[in-house]
Amino acid sequence: MDLRHKSFKPCNTMALRETTHTADADLFRQELANLINLRHPLVKLAQQIDWPSCESRFGDLYATGVGRPGHPIRLMVGLQLLKHTCNVSDEEVVATWVENPYWQYFCGEPYFSHEPPIDPSLMTGFRKRIDETGCEFILGLTLSAGLATRTVAKSSLAVVNVDTTVQDKAVTFPTDARLLHKARLALVRLAHKQGVQLRQSYERIGKAAFVRSQRYAHARQINRAAAQTRKLRTYLGRVIRDIERKLAVAGQASSRMTQLVQVAARIHSQPRKRSEGDPPKLYSVHAPEVECIAKGKAHKQYEFGVKVGIVSTSKESFVIAAKALPGNPYDGHTLGACIAQATRVSGIAPKEAYADRGYKGHGCNTNTFKVWISGSRRGVTPAIERKLKRRNAVEPVIGHLKSDGRLARNFLQGVEGDAMNALLCGAGHNMRKILRKLRLFYALFGFTLRLLLVRLLLPGSNASAPALQYQYRRTTTHLDRPKTEFLRVDEVNSSILARLCFKSQ
C-alpha cells in the first residue's frame, strides 16, 4: 500500500523556510551557546553531524516560492533522531523539545524557544516526504558521526554480523471473532461517514455476539463460541452485500470504501486454516500487510508484523543496515538485500559476514565477499573462529533495538512505514552508542584533570599512586554534632577541587 499522499509530491508542495533572526528582536536575548554546557555529549554530537548534507539531500523535496514555507530541514531531521534515540512518540518529542535547551541546540535553534517548533503531525508528513531512501540517508548520517567521533572504525565496516528478527506491528492479537467484528465496525463507520444508508448495522447484536464468543472461549465452551463466530460472519456478509448494492446503484465509490470492502470480503471468506494455493490470510483490518511469523520462541510462538534483517559491525556492534523484508522470506534469501543496503549506507562493501545456521544456502559467496555460518569447520582459522563467536553480539543489538528503541512495536502505517521505522531504529541505536562514547570520554577527561591537579597541589606525593588514594576532609553538622566525612577524589567536582584540603594516606 502506497503511503505517499498527493500533497507530498516533491516538486510543488511548499517552499523551504529559512531560520532568520534580526538584531532588533534578539537584542535582549541570550544565545543558547552561552547558557548550556558546551561539553555536553549532545552538543558535541551536533557539531559532528553533517547538517549541510541534509539541506542538499532533502532540499529538492521542497519547491521555491510556492505555498506556505516549510520548516528547517535540520529541525525535522533532528527531531526524528531525538525521537528514536529516546524512544518517545511524535507528541512527546515535540513537548520535550520545548523543555530541553540541549535538544533545541541540537536542532539548530540559536535562542531558547518557549513555543513548540512544529505540530506533531508534521513529523508524519516529513517521513512520507523523505521515504525509505531518506531514512537510509539519516542512518548514514549517524554512521558518519560515529566515524568522526571514533565510536566505530572504518576498518570495522568490512566485517559484519547478520541476523533477522520480527518487527511487531501495533495490532491486537487476531482471532476470527475479533477480525469479523472489527471489519463490520469499520464498514459501518465509513458508510455512515460517506452518507451510505445501510439496511441494518448490527451494532448492538454484533457487539453482544462478540462478547459472548469471548466468554465462551474463555470458559472452554468451544462449540458455543464457534456458534457466535458464525453469527458474526453472517452479520459481516450482510453488511458487505448491502454496501455493494448501494454502491452499484450510486454508480461511484471512493477508493477508500472500495479497498475496505475488499479487505472485509477477504476476512469474511478466508478459512481458519490456510491451504496450499489460498491467498495470504489477513490478520488486521487497518494493517492488511501484517504477517504471522513463527521464530521458534518458547515465550512467543507467533509474532505479527514483518521480518527485519539487521547488519551490524562485528567489533563495535554499530548498525549499518536495517532492511524490512515483507513476505516472510527464508533468511538465506534475504542476505543479498541486507548486504546491498549496508553497502549503500556505508559506501564500503563488506568483505566478511557472519550469520547463524538459518542462512544456509544463501548463494552470496564471491571472490570479494565471504559468508561464514555458525558451526563451520572447514577452512576456519583461529581468527575466523573468534569472529564466529563474536557473531552472537548481534543478538543483544536486536534486544537494544527493541527495548531501548522502537523496533518492538511499529506504529507507522503500511509497508513503507515498516521500512522507515526499521531504519530510524538503527539510527537511534547508533546515536545512543555515540552519546555513551562521548559521556565516557569527557568523564575520563575530568578524572584525568582531577588527578593532574592533585599531583600539582601535592608535589611530594607518590606519582605512581592511584588517584583514589587521595581524600579530602569535610566537616559538616549532623544532629547538632560535627561530623567528618572523607570523600574520594573521583567524587569531587573539578570546579571546587582547588579549594579542597587534600592529604595523602
Plain-language structure description:
This protein has 505 residues and is an alpha+beta fold. It folds into four domains: 6-148, no CATH class; 154-171 and 290-411; 176-269, no CATH class; 458-503, no CATH class. The chain has 14 helices and nine strands. The strands form two sheets. Strands 1, 2, 3, 4, 5 and 6 form a six-stranded mixed β-sheet that branches. A hairpin with a 5-residue loop joins strand 3 and strand 4 (319-325). Helix 3 (73-86) packs across helix 4, helix 7 (176-193) packs antiparallel against helix 10 and helix 8 (203-218) runs antiparallel to helix 9. Residues 1-13, 463-481 and 483-505 have low confidence and may be disordered.
Descriptors:
4 domains; disordered C terminus; alpha+beta; three-stranded antiparallel beta sheet; 505 residues
Structure at a glance:
With 505 residues, the chain is α+β, with helices and mostly antiparallel strands. The protein is built from 14 helices and nine strands. It folds into four domains: 6-148, no CATH class; 154-171 and 290-411; 176-269, no CATH class; 458-503, no CATH class.
Give the domain tally.
4
Runs with pLDDT <50, length 5+? Answer: 1-13, 463-481, 483-505
Give the CA-based shape.
Answer: globular
N-to-C order of helices and strands:
HHHHHHEHHHHEEEHEEHHHEEE
The main β sheet shows up as: 6 strands, mixed
Counted by DSSP, the helix tally is 14
* CA radius of gyration: 29 Å
How far apart are the termini?
Answer: 71 Å
Mean pLDDT: 85
Can you count the beta strands?
9
Strand content: 5-15%
Helix share, percent: 40-55%
**Secondary structure category:** alpha+beta
